[in-house]
User: Fold these one by one.
Assistant:
Number 1:
Amino acid sequence: MEQNMARKFFDRILKKAGIRRMRFHDLRHTFASQLLANGESPVYVKEQMGHSSIQMTVDIYGHLIPNSNRSAVDRLDQTQTNANGLKKSAVTC
């Protein structure tokens, strides 16, 4: 389906449902926002959104993370790949 056709179809659905006009892409943001509002972890949201790093997720949606400590969330992205290709945390406990 061509992009213009999909957009017109989406606009018609919104109009029939009595929902204000929005971009299809806005549904993506709503999905991520609702996940965070319902207490899902930023890591889970990152995976669902297909973001390349947790930093990207936090930069876009960090203000929606309840009781967030942004620096703690940012540390989640400080990983490095070891020789076996496994993720190894750069933060030591």
Number 2:
Amino acid sequence: MTTEICKIDAFSLERAKKIIESGGAVAFPTETVYGLGANAFSTEAVNGIFTIKGRPNNNPLIVHVHRDYDISALVDEIPDYAKKLAKAYLPGPLTMVYKSKGKVSPSVSCGLDTLAVRVPSHEGAQRFLRCVGLPIAAPSANISKHVSPTSAEHVLGDLNGRIELILDGGKCEGGIESTVLDCTGEVPVILRSGLVTRQMIANVAGDCGVYTYIKGERARSPGLMYKHYSPNCETALFSEGELEKALSRYDERAKAGKRVVIICGTEAVRLLGERQNIPLGKTPSEMAKNLYSALREAEKQFDVAIALVPENDGGIMEGVINRLSKACAGEE
């Protein structure tokens, strides 16, 4: 199969629609990362996503819809706080989990009685979703456990020959996946941190909890189980408070003949001396935007990537640290 990258226009959108309607999958941009989308009503199409990615079939997917799609056709019991959050932050990088009406394929939620729904704000995503006119089940458009893609070229690097079409919408501005919020209880609960922060949610909903995944539990959201977002090189993870340990690891691996790099915030670069580094940026938003590109750059040029995790001041930084920890801590 030949994989093509196409700018988003009337011709490529019509081609994408035909692929979706025939049970295939298309990569498309969002404001967070590129998604690999298929018809959420078709079990065969949804299962195809798992096959293309090599994704475990107990890791649920998110359904993407355009801004005018009536999600009440798909889900039950939309609480008042969810309606307020939708008004405040959608379209945008917020996924909300509801009780499902069972209208989409059970493969989307891996047998759970809930459904995760997202309305991306990226113009290209909106054009694609309007054109196909269907709810689109979509994880990130990469090989399972690898670094998430924030450009069409990243997608091609992972899925070349596995899909027909990548809709090119430029570099993703957000950089890390959407916040996933459980809206099935009295109070919203964050299942996966992201660009819509706990404080932002609490400001609208009045309160917001945070779920802690316990190993062995059934996943209620993408990104909870397994090693994720990981570059194809040796990795290590240290906090900024463990700077001496990080530098010692760097020097040890470099002495062994390895090409080593430290991924860190811009402010920490001055502490590294002459050691190779890839700066993520100064602000949490910059770090989120640049994170996956930095991890992909590291795997191309180096044998060892050492992540120096910034101090957690909450907010978006929680999402950055979550992704770095999943990518570099070495957990399978």
